Predict the 3D structure of the following.
Amino acid sequence: MSQIPDPRPEPPREPDAFACCGNECGEACVWTIYQHAQRRYALELEAWQLRQLEQED
């Protein structure tokens, strides 16, 4: 039985320091978007790690 590829999630790329315009863009700010991506990555990584443990059994 062949396994379906399940690559480890890739972390989000941190924005360059100069990417922020400093205008307090709220949800559109590159740093806010990055923080959301980090949270999403943490959840995806946790789910991936659980799948890896399940495959070991």
In short: The helical segments are 30-56.
